[in-house]
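Feature request, filed as a ticket because there's no other form

It would be nice if the structure record came with a short human-readable summary line next to the tokens. Right now we just get the raw output. Example of a typical job, pasted below so the devs can see what we mean:
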Amino acid sequence: MDAITCELEGIILGLELSLEYYKSGKYEQQQETLYILCDCSSAIDINVHKVASQTWIELFQKIIYLETVIGKEY
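Raw output as currently delivered:
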């Protein structure tokens, strides 16, 4: 497994855990800011520019899905 795949999986895990947190109703503020840290410039570029090669397309689609769910519901 390459480094970019690991970083994208880490972003997915962060989004999934954030979604669980928001679904739990434990947050207190009307609006919260979510930060997911990543030190891999390629993984960051994939997310910022919304462009992924065929190698990471499945991971990229999962990230887009999770971002959409979190953005619409919370």
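Something like this underneath would help us a lot:
The radius of gyration is 13 Å.
The chain is about 65% helix and 0% strand.
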